[in-house]
Design goal:
The chain has 8 helices and no strands. The protein is mostly helical. The termini are far apart.
Amino acid sequence: MKISLGLVLSWLLGGILLLASLGSFMSSGSIGLCYLLMSLILLPPVRKFTYGKTNISISTGLRVTILIVLFFSPVYIQMNNYKEEKSVNEIIAIEPKSPVAESQPITEPVQSIATYKTEDNIICQIEASTAEHDLKEKYRNKYPDSYSTQRMLLKSGMKAYHSLCALGKLSEVEESVLKKKMNRYYPSFSTIKMLYDKNMEDYRALNN
């Protein structure tokens, strides 16, 4: 087998990207997928196997174009993540703080403000008691010695939960946006509501 610089680089870069994809999947599935696709395009055995099965060969120019697109995709994803996290942090920063003493853990339940049908929307399919439990666990683990912070965020989260349930039955677009945010940020209902409201505001502005 003839060993060329291109072959060596394909093996080297493909192997590095394959390892990078395994690590990236733990933090971001979409970024991990980009790295995995890049490694598959570069690794010679994969190209050889694909050609043997499909008899289709991708030109060098097309491979380079695909690699460039995949290379910059994680940058775009990270920029979007940064914008969303920045918005979340701004909301948390202006959230009014509760005067509860730091030494008192959360023990009493957050009162429900309404009863909802489970078919209203995807948020309502989660029982209020389950939502409250998951929020408590999240904030206990994140702020183990700050009980006022736990309680403030719990109350804010449950308020957002009830507000989202009160939206009732949603359109296909609304349900899709809400589901995407819930899958990513559950059980942070305050974050889900803030990002959902912003997304729908932009959607309506674009469609007016």
